[in-house]
Amino acid sequence: MAAAATPANAQVGTETTSYTLFGAPGLILMPTAEVAADSELAFSYSQFGPNANGTLTFQILPRLSGSFRYTKLANFWNVGPLTGQDFFDRSFDLEYRVLNETKYLPAVSVGIRDFIGTGVYSGEYVVATKGFGDKLRVHGGLGWGRLASHNPIGQIGGPRPAFDVGQGGNLNFSQWFRGDFAPFAGVSYKVNDKLTFKAEYSSDAFVEEVARGTMEYNSPFNFGIDYQISPAFHLNASYVAGSMFGAGLTIRLNPRQPQARSGNEKAPLPVKPRPSRADSAAWGSDWVTSSENHNDIRKVVSDALGKQGIRLKALGLGATQAAIRIDNKRFNSQPQAVGRTARILTHALPPSIEIFKITITQNGIPLSTVTMRRSDIEDLEHAPALDIYNRVTIGEAAPTAVKNAELPNFDQRFSWALTPYMAISFFDPSSPVRGDVGLRFSAKYEIAPNIILSGAVQKSIWGNLDDDTHLNTSDLPHVRTDGALYAQQGDPAIEHLTASWYERPGKNLYSRVTVGYLEKMFGGVSAELLWKPVDSPLAIGAEVAWVKQRDYDQLFGFRDYDVVTGHVSAYYDFGNGFSTRVDAGRYLAGDYGATFSVDRTFANGWKVGGYFTKTNVSAEEFGEGSFDKGIRISIPFEWAMGTPSKSESGAELRSLERDGGARLQVDGRLFDWVEDGHGDAYADRWGKFWR
Question: Which among 304, 349, 406, 622 could bridge 344 via Cys, Cβ 3.0 to 4.6 Å?
Answer without folding.
Answer: 304
